[in-house]
């Protein structure tokens, strides 16, 4: 719990501070202002990941390699497959939604409007790396790797069976993952939505034990709600 | 970004319009998506590992020292 609470406080405080500082020094509506804000938020997420990893290593009395951020061929393969699975799942569900008349999908309607084309492209790249990938790596480290593993170990130490400990730990992590989104996005519906979506990430983690597939799933899926 | 995103004076135009914005409709889309992704994850794990089970690096039931704070 401590890494989650501490990093959430850091995140909310950091975003508030960034907003105040950047608003006073730059025009947030300009292209440069947008990039500056995104860059600052990327730095904040990098800081949060570092803090979460440090806390995990400290409280588990483990090593940095145990946290799961090491990148190797298997990680890369799971990342690619996780991305493909999520894109496929999102695409098929949108196809179903269109078939049922719940959504109207129009690729021709997509695009980017605004001046300074290259800057827009750069912004999109920064958005992807910063918000989608880096931000979600933070969520995966805290809410899957740290929480599920430690909750399960704690429950098992108190007499729960391995299977029961993992189920309870996963449920608790999903509830907290949902609550984590309330101060960031404003309401309880978002919390339920995040907890539901989190089941896919939790499943991928439980079955693979790898950050790659989970980060990819989160990245490809989290902004398509 | 499928639903669109505005950054300063730039706008990423969405490709998906919500034509029925009710709780049941949104829940249906969400559950279909989650079910598909979970199913595909299960297939992938089965194909690569020959079975479906808890990865031992997640929780091996060992006596690793853990701070419960």
Rg over alpha carbons of chain B: 20 Å
For the largest beta-sheet of chain A, the strand count, sense and barrel status come to: none
Question: What is the H/E order of chain B?
Answer: EEEH
Determine the number of helices of chain A (DSSP H or I, runs of at least 4 residues): 7
Q: Quaternary state, please?
A: heterodimer
Q: Indicate the structural class of chain B.
A: alpha+beta
Which segments of chain A are poorly predicted (pLDDT under 50) over 5 or more consecutive residues?
A: 219-225
Number of strands of chain B: 3
Computed structural class of chain A: mainly alpha
Radius of gyration of chain A, Cα only, in angstroms?
A: 19 Å
User: How many strands, which pairing sense, and closed or not: the largest β-sheet of chain B?
Assistant: 2 strands, antiparallel
Number of strand elements of chain A? 2
Average pLDDT number of chain A: 78
The level of helicity of chain A is: over 70%
Mean of the pLDDT scores of chain B? 75
Largest interface: A-B, 76 and 50 residues
């Amino acid at each position: 719990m401590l890494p989650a609470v501490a990093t959430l406080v850091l995140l909310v405080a950091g975003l508030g501070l960034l907003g105040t500082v950047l608003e006073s020094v730059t025009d947030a509506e300009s292209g440069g202002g947008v990039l500056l804000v995104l860059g600052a938020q990327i730095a904040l997420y990098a800081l949060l990941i570092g803090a979460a990893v440090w806390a995990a290593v400290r409280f588990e009395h483990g090593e940095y390699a145990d946290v799961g951020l090491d990148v190797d061929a298997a990680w890369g393969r799971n990342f690619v497959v996780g991305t493909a699975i999520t894109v496929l799942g999102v695409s098929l569900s949108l196809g179903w939604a269109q078939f049922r008349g719940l959504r109207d999908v129009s690729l021709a309607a997509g695009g980017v409007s605004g001046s300074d084309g290259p800057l827009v492209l750069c912004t999109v790249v920064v958005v992807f790396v910063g918000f989608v990938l880096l931000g979600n790596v933070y969520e995966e480290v805290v809410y899957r790797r740290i929480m599920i593993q430690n909750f399960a170990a704690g429950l098992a130490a108190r007499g729960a069976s391995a299977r029961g400990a993992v189920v309870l730990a996963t449920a608790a992590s999903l509830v907290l993952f949902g609550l984590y989104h309330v101060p960031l996005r404003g309401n309880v519906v978002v919390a339920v939505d995040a907890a539901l979506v989190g089941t896919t990430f939790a499943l991928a983690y439980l079955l693979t034990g790898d950050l790659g597939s989970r980060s990819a799933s989160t990245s490809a899926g989290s902004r398509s709600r | 970004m499928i639903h669109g995103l505005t950054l300063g004076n730039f706008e990423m135009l969405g490709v998906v319009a919500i034509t029925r914005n009710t709780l049941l409709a949104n829940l249906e889309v969400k559950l279909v998506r989650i079910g598909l992704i979970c199913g595909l994850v299960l297939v992938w794990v089965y194909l690569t590992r020959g079975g479906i089970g808890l990865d031992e690096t997640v929780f091996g039931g060992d006596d690793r020292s853990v701070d419960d704070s």
